[in-house]
């Protein structure tokens, strides 16, 4: 309480100095006109009494206000902070309190968004862990069985590397890096760069590959993110194609990846790009996280592309990437 006395009088110094000035002028006036000071002293004592009552009431309200403000500072980011504001005495305080309320509301919104984003990343990491366990378990089984087949082990290690790369790109996507480099790319060069990476799987599964109208085709895109999308789509095509062939063609500014795999059920098609949705095939084979296609669509939108998918059970799946005809505006 004692700590409040000095700041209380300091904040009202103008009032008390003005009172002393008025008293001084009154004394000086009485002196100039040779008036008796008895009437002055009666008025002086009366005004001092009123000033004392005012000071006591003001100090009580001042102390209560300071206590409320202290509580407010300790609970500044809490949603209930609005109710802790002391009553505004001036219009300026009304405006200041409204500004603080708006800032608090925005802070709480951003705080909720941050918590939600952290929870989403945590949940997605759980999905990714489920996916990467499959090749790790396969490697463990190969080691325990004593069947150290180099080709199979190489395939499983390749999958582990792919899933690690996918998680790295997922984190980059969530950080929303503004590192896009939209340029004119040769679709033939980009596709063949991705195919070289997966050549091992084509030979391992004895899959045929057919390329159509890729030479001379160009698109506007970011090479790094486009390669990531192609890797996800091609890896899915290889994974779900037991035998047959995969056809990659470029027609009318769209890249088409078509396989003769097991296909996707019609009821699963509308949701294949949703995060965490694996569909019947993913659940049946226990090797899907539902992140690959989701992340592919997110990145496609980021670079101005659009993904579309068609499929028939037992006949295969066709995924199309529609490229922008002009440079996307970020």
From TrEMBL:
Gene3D superfamilies: Histidine kinase-like ATPase, C-terminal domain. It is found in: Cell membrane. The chain crosses the membrane at residues 14-33, 39-60. Pfam families: HATPase_c. The keyword Transferase applies. The keyword NADP does not apply. Its main location: membrane. Residues 127-327 form the Histidine kinase domain. Its EC number is 2.7.13.3. Keywords: Cell membrane, Kinase, Membrane, Transferase, Transmembrane, Transmembrane helix, Two-component regulatory system. It is a multi-pass membrane protein. It catalyses: ATP + protein L-histidine = ADP + protein N-phospho-L-histidine. It is an enzyme of class 2 (transferase). This is histidine kinase.
């Amino acid at each position: 309480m004692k700590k409040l006395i000095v700041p209380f009088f300091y904040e009202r110094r103008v009032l008390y100095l003005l009172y002393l000035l008025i008293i001084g002028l009154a004394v000086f006036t009485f002196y100039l006109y040779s008036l008796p000071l008895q009437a002055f002293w009666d008025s002086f004592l009366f005004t001092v009494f009123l000033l004392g009552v005012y000071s006591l009431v003001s100090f009580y309200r001042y102390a209560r206000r300071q206590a409320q403000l202290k509580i407010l500072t300790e609970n500044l980011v809490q949603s209930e902070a609005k109710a802790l504001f002391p009553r505004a005495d001036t219009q300026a305080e009304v405006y200041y309190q409204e500004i603080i309320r708006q800032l608090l509301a925005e802070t709480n919104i951003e705080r909720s968004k941050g918590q939600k984003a952290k929870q989403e990343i945590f949940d997605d990491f759980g999905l990714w862990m489920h996916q990467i366990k499959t090749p790790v378990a396969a490697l463990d089984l190969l080691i325990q069985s004593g069947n150290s087949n180099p080709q199979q082990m190489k395939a499983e290690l390749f999958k582990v590397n792919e899933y690690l790369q996918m998680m790295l790109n997922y984190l980059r996507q969530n950080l929303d890096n503004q590192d896009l480099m939209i340029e004119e790319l040769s679709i033939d060069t980009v596709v063949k760069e991705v195919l070289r990476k997966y050549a091992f799987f084509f030979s391992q599964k004895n899959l045929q590959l057919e390329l159509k109208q890729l030479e001379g085709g160009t698109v506007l895109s970011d090479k790094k993110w486009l390669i990531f999308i192609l890797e996800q789509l091609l890896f899915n095509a290889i994974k779900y194609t037991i035998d047959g062939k995969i056809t990659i063609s470029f027609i009318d500014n769209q890249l088409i990846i078509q396989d003769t795999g097991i296909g996707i059920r019609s009821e699963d098609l509308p949701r294949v790009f949703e995060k965490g949705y694996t569909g019947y095939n993913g659940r049946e084979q226990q090797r899907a996280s539902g992140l690959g296609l989701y992340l592919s669509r997110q990145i496609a939108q980021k670079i101005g592309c659009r993904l579309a998918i068609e499929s028939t059970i037992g006949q295969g799946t066709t995924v199309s990437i529609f490229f922008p005809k002009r440079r996307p505006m970020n």
